[in-house]
Specification:
Shape of chain A: globular
Shape of chain B: globular
Number of helices of chain B: 5
Oligomer: heterodimer
Strand content of chain A: 15-25%
Low-confidence stretches of chain A: 1-11
Helix content of chain B: 40-55%
Number of strands of chain A: 5
Structural class of chain A: alpha+beta
Strand content of chain B: 5-15%
Mean pLDDT of chain A: 71
Helix content of chain A: 25-40%
Radius of gyration of chain B: 17 Å
Radius of gyration of chain A: 15 Å
Low-confidence stretches of chain B: 1-7
Number of helices of chain A: 3
Distance between the termini of chain B: 38 Å
Mean pLDDT of chain B: 83
Order of helices and strands of chain B: HHHEEHHEE
Strand order of the largest sheet of chain A: 2-1-5-4-3
Order of helices and strands of chain A: EEHEEEHH
Structural class of chain B: alpha+beta
Number of strands of chain B: 4
């Protein structure tokens, strides 16, 4: 990123499971309360479900799902039906490149795969993720 | 298992023989009963169930890793074909030799030279060897069930061995 333009900081990153309950929500901003992140995450899940049942395209990255107020929501679904959602705040003079978003999602996916491969991780999908390695990886993704 | 060139890749390498030993010992461990007198039928079923559950978890984790960079699957047949090709290659370095389906949710996978049976031999009749080899099918059945389960297909997987080293896996998709 060039020093003159301001890259909008990603706000919440959430990874809901296939039963559609959020596994992990990280709120990186100070201006939005956590409750709003939950609300946005749940509405995004509905949108993702709509999107994947409507079009049969075989890509994992779903792109911009919708934009509300000044937040833009990007979605990504894996082959194992786990959905990742990134919400960013829109700054009108900066356009977010698809490639950057794909990179971020790829890193989140890698962190998730490492987490699931751990034999001590319980994959039933009802409890939130509490692994310190995963949280560290998420912190690294969201600081870039 | 990894085909990296030694010294030029930072992936960790593992001796394949230690994996073979682990798999064989795992089955033996589950069958060791606390009383040495005799193992009842329920003990054998309990051991089978434990091995299958282990395979289920490993299959789920494996499939997360293997489908990471792949485009999404279109339907159940696509998922089963993935199991026959990429999944089997990742596990056993070969593909399934034969896939049959009745297009109504039942698939039969035949492997003519099952890798984990390739080093097994016995001095009894063929039927006796097959019966003993059946216990070693619990973990692979669990692997397949875990892989399919994580991809969204709920199934029942039954393994059969007629003559070592050939074995078949029958996949029945559960109706929702």
């Amino acid at each position: 990123m060039s020093p003159t333009c301001q890259f909008p900081a990603p706000k919440p990153v959430s990874s809901p499971a296939r039963q559609n309950n959020p596994l992990y929500i990280k709120n990186c901003s100070t201006t939005y309360p956590d409750l709003k992140c939950h609300y946005v995450a749940h509405t995004s899940i509905d949108l993702i479900e709509e999107r994947i049942s409507a079009t049969k395209h075989a890509d994992q990255y779903l792109g911009l799902l919708y934009a509300m107020e000044e937040l833009a929501v990007f979605g990504y679904i894996t082959n194992t039906r786990v959905k990742f959602i990134i919400v960013t705040s829109l700054v009108s003079d900066v356009s977010i490149k698809d490639q950057d978003m794909k990179n971020m999602f790829r890193r989140i996916h890698n962190a998730y795969v490492t987490l699931v491969s751990c034999p001590f991780h319980d994959p039933d999908g009802k409890q939130p993720i509490t692994s310190p390695a995963f949280e560290k990886a998420m912190a690294e993704v969201t600081t870039i | 298992m990894a085909t990296a060139v030694l010294g030029q890749d930072d992936r960790r390498l593992l001796a394949e023989s230690s994996l073979d030993f682990l798999i064989v010992e795992m089955v033996d461990l589950m069958h060791r009963s606390p009383s040495d007198t005799d193992t009842t039928e329920t003990d054998k079923e309990a051991a089978y169930f434990k091995l299958e559950t282990l395979g289920y978890q490993v299959g789920m984790a494996l499939v997360e890793r293997l489908t990471k960079d792949r485009p999404r699957f279109l339907d159940n047949l696509d998922v089963v074909k993935f199991i026959c090709k990429d999944f089997w290659i990742a596990l056993f370095k070969k593909q399934i030799d034969n896939l049959k389906t009745n297009h109504r949710g039942v698939y039969v996978l035949t492997d003519n030279n099952f890798r984990w049976f390739s080093r097994m031999s016995g001095d009894g009749a063929n039927a006796e060897i097959s019966r003993q080899a059946y216990a070693h099918l619990a973990f692979p059945c669990g692997l397949i069930r875990g892989a399919l389960g994580n991809l969204g297909v709920s199934t029942v997987v039954i393994g059969e061995v007629s003559t070592v080293p050939q074995c078949t896996f029958q996949i029945k998709i559960n109706k929702p």
